[in-house]
Write a structure and sequence with these properties.
5-stranded mixed beta sheet; 532 residues; alpha/beta; 22 helices
């Protein structure tokens, strides 16, 4: 039986349930099926492909041990011995040293072999682990992904996943439900509220899966495994061509382009490098900072619709269409509001989270945790001083806008200042110096609004049950300009403010909002948003 290594809970019953979540009966059957092939028929690769791969390795090394060939290709000793024996008889390579054991034999390429390998490399320069045939990949993936949802996520998995997440219980619920049913999620709100961070926890709620490192189709190689996004589990299949991974988290941001959503051929490596959609199979694909991409974000969203809907994408290998699995949960985050996505796109991400600005206590707790993660010693009173920065002026604070990003950045700046001051502990002097060096803290203290400077503002027309109280609340909110127009209030705010955020804030102040209408947006074509 497979040795289970990912244990996170105590207690016999719950421990068994959680272990089964990471390695269930279906996974065990797949492990039993993925035995290392011992002959070419089971390997399901042509003898010419295998001998070509081996010859390229010998040519690359000059002289190489069979143990190195075995390690590089993942091909069983029986197959290597059989194929190398035929290659030797054909005059493509010859043994030059070695003992009684086949694993110690060294091979070198012959003149005939060098001539042969030139044509092989021109057609396919790939050198590496032997690929899995496409049909086997497709069927094994189909077995794993069928009935993957709805999930029954153990409470202990949920607890461990969100162990380092402060507050935002409403957001955690939405993320859990997204993972249970495998449906997309849209997370939006002001900068610094932890959108990217909290979405990055989602893969920990999902079970692992088995995937091939490379697949072969028509003699060409398609790369699936990417160590930047795929983290290996401790227990692994017997066949080294396959890998068991934790559910992947593929993050793309403002650098995302339409071209990067395609699978492209790398002639130097001799492989088709798969797109983020294919790499995210079985996990989460996050499109971060939606609306900040160089290519039109609507074109990017349109490109995603079919892979999101059908859970498959089509690539072309030598002009032949090949279907690959894209069974990911789409996640989108933005500082803009929901109007950036139309109804067709929102249907693919029906769950949503509006992340509000955090409470002062939550920001202070994140500041403390960051100091401890940095292994910094600090005087306890600095936490109270940090909290004062964000407490309302009427309570004796500075009234700055609380932000999780501030908490992280100020903690890191504190470390730099302490080291620069040659102190052993972060004290009040260090904290004050760090606050004076944080650009956004300083700008807020000077009442300088970056959105106003760059003219990135939005204008809303609000109707409420109490216009005077609405104006007062908007002044406390930090609105740029406020005026009355008949039975409405016109307010200018920075571009990251959504109507949902504004409505939620006013409702928290006891003000009933009848309607919010977006009437102007500087620097952009106006898309009217009504919230009734």
């Amino acid at each position: 039986m497979t040795k289970y290594t990912k244990k996170i809970i105590t207690g016999p019953e719950s421990a068994g349930f959680t272990m089964n979540y990471y390695h269930d009966e279906k996974m065990e059957k797949i492990f039993n099926a993925l035995k290392q092939p011992k002959n070419l028929d089971d390997l399901q690769l042509s003898e010419s492909f295998v001998s070509g791969l081996i010859l390229k390795i010998i040519s690359s090394y000059g002289t190489v041990k069979t143990s190195t060939i075995n390690e590089l290709t993942g091909i069983h000793w029986d197959i290597l011995e059989n194929v190398l024996s035929k290659m030797e008889k054909s005059g493509f390579c010859t043994p030059v040293s070695g003992g009684f054991l086949f694993s110690s034999v060294e091979y070198t390429i012959t003149k005939k072999g060098r001539e042969k390998v030139k044509g092989i490399i021109e057609d396919n320069p790939y050198i590496g682990i032997a690929p899995v045939p496409y049909e086997e990949y497709y069927q094994i993936m189909k077995i794993q992904l069928k009935h993957r949802y709805p999930l029954q996520i153990p409470s202990e998995v949920v607890e461990k996943t969100f162990h380092h997440v402060v507050g935002v219980d409403y957001a955690k619920e939405a993320l859990i439900e997204s993972c249970i049913i495998g449906k997309g999620i849209f997370v939006y709100g002001p900068p610094g509220t932890g959108k990217t961070f909290i979405i990055s926890t989602m893969p920990d709620l999902l079970p692992p899966l088995v995937m091939p490192k490379y697949i072969e189709f028509g003699g060409k190689i398609i790369q699936l495994y990417d160590p930047d996004f795929h983290k290996m589990c401790e227990e692994q299949p017997n066949d080294p061509r396959w890998v068991k991974i934790h559910a992947p988290f593929v993050l793309t941001g403002s650098e995302l382009s339409l071209n990067k959503l395609e699978t492209n051929y790398d002639p130097n490596k001799g492989v088709y490098e798969t797109s983020p959609m294919i790499k995210a199979n079985g996990g989460i694909l996050l499109i971060d900072d939606l609306g900040r991409q160089r290519d039109d974000h609507e074109l990017i969203l349109n490109r995603l619709i079919v892979p999101m809907e059908n859970k498959k994408d089509m690539i072309y290998v030598r002009g032949i269409p090949v279907i690959l699995h894209t069974h990911f949960i789409p996640a989108f985050s933005t500082n803009l509001d929901t109007s950036i996505m139309d109804e067709a796109h929102l249907r693919r991400a029906p769950l949503h989270v509006f992340l509000k600005n955090p409470a002062v206590e939550e920001v202070t707790e994140v500041f403390r945790r960051n100091l401890e993660d940095l292994q910094e010693n600090y005087q306890p009173e600095i936490l109270g001083r940090f909290m004062k920065v964000y407490q309302p002026k009427k309570d004796g604070g500075e009234g700055l806008q609380p932000s999780f990003a501030h908490a992280r950045d100020v903690a890191q700046i504190c470390q730099a200042v302490r080291i620069n001051m040659k102190k052993d502990i972060i004290d009040m002097e260090v904290l004050e110096a760090a606050l004076d060096k944080h650009v956004l803290v300083v700008l807020q203290r000077l009442n300088i609004d970056l959105a106003q400077i760059s003219h990135k503002t939005r204008s809303f027309r609000l109707k409420s049950d109490d216009l005077e109280k609405t104006q007062e609340a908007l002044e406390l909110y930090g609105a740029l300009n406020i005026c009355q127009e008949n039975s409405s209030v016109i307010v200018d705010v920075d571009e990251s403010t959504s109507p949902v955020e504004l409505s939620g804030y006013l409702n928290d102040q006891g003000i009933k909002v009848e309607k919010i209408e977006l009437i102007a947006e500087s620097g952009k074509e106006l898309r009217r948003t009504l919230l009734n």
